[in-house]
């Protein structure tokens, strides 16, 4: 009991430190170091292969983005207008706009899409309501985490977003399983969504800003739900979710319209651009896992503290397998 109480006290003290200016500054320094060393090690890219660019690459450069290699992409780690510390705190108090178009976006269609995907992830997708999202993980035959992913269930398809660093691995794994599933008569198809950018508007003022650009009331747009919204004439796939620990939205927008939408959002004084540096310090402060650092194929969901992502049907199946005599 004494040890447990001490742990709680120290955890609370550390949490307060993280939210202090000094704590965030130290996190910022750590993050910049990560992107100069650790990220290059974990997401090494051959010098013979040019870095990929998101549809907003020129926009980032024009706005003072400091571009760095990340998972095979050239991405802004920060901007000249705001350092990582200032950007981190701005997100906590206002709203920040992140380009996350490097992430892998996929669409599953076909009559058996739900039952197929349930064989690859630990989520209970049959019970997931339509237009709801869920965080889950792809697992290998040993229960190790291949990647973490956000899954959105719609009436006629499933929308999936996973990590850029695992894009090739994820698509290879899914296509391999699709081939086996189709050979058994299953109806499922995969499409890579490569014609849409992905923008993350994060922070306590994100909802009020987005509301002014939408033709629909967002007051009943709940956390971890998804909608197709018309944003100033652009048909967008929007989820109320993010990777910062704040309220916010991830907006899938047609690539040709992405810069225009970004500029519309930046017209609001409460919105500033933010890069990978602030995104990493924000997720770290919120206790969110990063694949390649906190998770890998030797880590199970239980070991990662992600038991809450495991669906009840998976738990019951495992229980029955263990206690079958």
UniProtKB/TrEMBL annotation:
It is found in: Mitochondrion. It comes from the Eukaryota. SUPFAM superfamilies: Folate-binding domain. GO terms for molecular function: aminomethyltransferase activity; transaminase activity. One of its GO terms (biological process) is glycine catabolic process. It holds the Pfam family GCV_T. Residues 56-311 form the GCVT N-terminal domain. Keywords: Aminotransferase, Mitochondrion, Transferase, Transit peptide. GO terms for cellular component: glycine cleavage complex; mitochondrion. Belongs to the GcvT family. The glycine cleavage system is composed of four proteins: P, T, L and H. This is Aminomethyltransferase. It comes from Rhizophagus irregularis (strain DAOM 197198w) (Glomus intraradices).
């Amino acid at each position: 009991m004494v040890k447990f109480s001490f742990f709680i006290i120290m955890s609370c003290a550390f949490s307060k430190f993280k939210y202090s200016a000094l704590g965030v500054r130290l996190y910022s320094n750590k993050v910049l170091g990560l992107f100069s060393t650790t990220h290059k090690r974990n997401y090494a890219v051959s010098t013979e292969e040019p870095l990929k660019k998101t549809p907003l690459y020129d926009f980032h450069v024009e706005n003072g983005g400091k571009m760095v290699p990340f998972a095979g992409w050239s991405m802004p780690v920060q901007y000249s207008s705001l350092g990582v510390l200032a950007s981190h705190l701005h997100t906590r108090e206002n709203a920040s706009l992140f380009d996350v178009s490097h992430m892998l976006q996929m669409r599953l269609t076909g009559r058996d899409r739900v039952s197929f995907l349930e064989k690859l992830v630990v989520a209970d997708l049959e019970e997931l309501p339509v237009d709801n999202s869920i965080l889950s993980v792809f697992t290998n035959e040993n229960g190790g985490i291949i990647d973490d992913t956000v899954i959105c269930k719609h009436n006629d398809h499933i929308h999936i977003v996973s990590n850029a660093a695992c894009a090739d691995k994820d698509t290879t794994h899914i296509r391999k399983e699709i081939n086996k599933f189709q050979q058994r008569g299953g109806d499922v198809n995969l499409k890579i969504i490569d014609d849409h950018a992905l923008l993350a508007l994060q922070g306590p003022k994100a909802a009020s800003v987005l509301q002014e650009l939408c033709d629909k009331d967002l007051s009943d747009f709940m956390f971890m739900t998804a909608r197709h919204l018309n944003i100033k004439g652009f048909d967008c796939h929007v989820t109320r979710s993010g990777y910062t620990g704040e309220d916010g939205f991830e907006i899938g927008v047609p690539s040709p319209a992405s810069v225009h939408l970004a500029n519309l959002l930046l017209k609001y004084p409460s919105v500033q651009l933010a890069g990978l540096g602030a995104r990493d310090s924000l997720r770290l402060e919120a206790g969110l896992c990063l694949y390649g650092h906190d998770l890998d194929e030797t880590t199970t969901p239980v070991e990662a503290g992600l038991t809450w992502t495991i669906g009840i049907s998976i738990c019951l199946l495992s229980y029955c397998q263990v206690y079958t005599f």
